[in-house]
């Protein structure tokens, strides 16, 4: 697979140009898997070409997983649902014969991967939706080794399985809705084939420092497959674009990020997906924010390391914010509510939260509001006229 650091070169994909955890509206269980063996595509540089790469950070060898927790939102039954999403990322060795975790990490021919586990539980008015999507990407070149996904709730079952061998993709799915049942598709693997579900980890290896915001790349995209109805199993044209660096505020704090935009055919009510990765090299380019199809949004809330398979859950580690940042968050919140003529602001700490008193014009009963903000920067409640 070709280097991601060559992604913006004319030969990296089919052509070069300067143009350019989802509404589960119904019930079901989804399963799909993607297995790739010796396939062309994009490839990260060899370790000796990229010393200090985030992939080589010693944190990955401490026997724990990167534990990223996100404030999340997804549309289900035409209503935005707020919840907490968790992404675990860790290194492990896979058995290429079974495509499962190797019984012995030193097995001959074993494949070292990043296991990227996206875990979501979403309450609705009907029942709880449970989604789990796991991408396995090779640590040496960030090519996809396997992707598996499932969803469970209380109404039915649907599944998908996609395999790639010897340059050929074979995809199968079963849907329990009327006129669906079983279907399959097959197509050739190409150098520019991407899988939407794996990009939250694969794009961490994008050549941010050398990318040009005037460049964009044509890619073949296999869409987000997590739906309870049949989906399109074959790839469609899409465009990958580096937008640049942006400072954004998430519950974790103010963060400098690299922004990548993916333009694609309509998926779940959206024609674009946006990825924001941490600039800070000590954070290994972790995903800070994501906005995509099905009304899906992730905003980083806490970040730590945890051997979740063997240890009890530790306390979540969140970035604490200072008084200046708290004041700006409160002002932004009131601006979003239409109160732009702010006269005075008073900020004070009260236990584990901040209280910001704001006076503004035009006057309302009491002439001011009180904004309560958590120590990690999340607006808890606004008391108008308080």
Task: Supply the helix-strand structural class.
Answer: mainly beta
Number of strands: 24
Helix content: under 10%
Strand content is: over 45%
How much is the average pLDDT? 81
Largest sheet: 18 strands, mixed
Overall structural domain count: 2
Q: Which word captures the global form?
A: globular
Number of helices: 2
Distance between the termini: 60 Å
Description:
The chain has 386 residues and is mainly β. Helices cover 5% and strands 52% of the residues. The chain has two helices and 24 strands. The protein has an 18-stranded mixed β-sheet that branches. A hairpin with a 4-residue loop joins β6 (79-95) and β7 (100-101). The longest helix is centred in the C-terminal third of the chain and has 14 residues, at 323-336. 38% of the residues are buried. Residues 1-52 have low confidence and may be disordered.
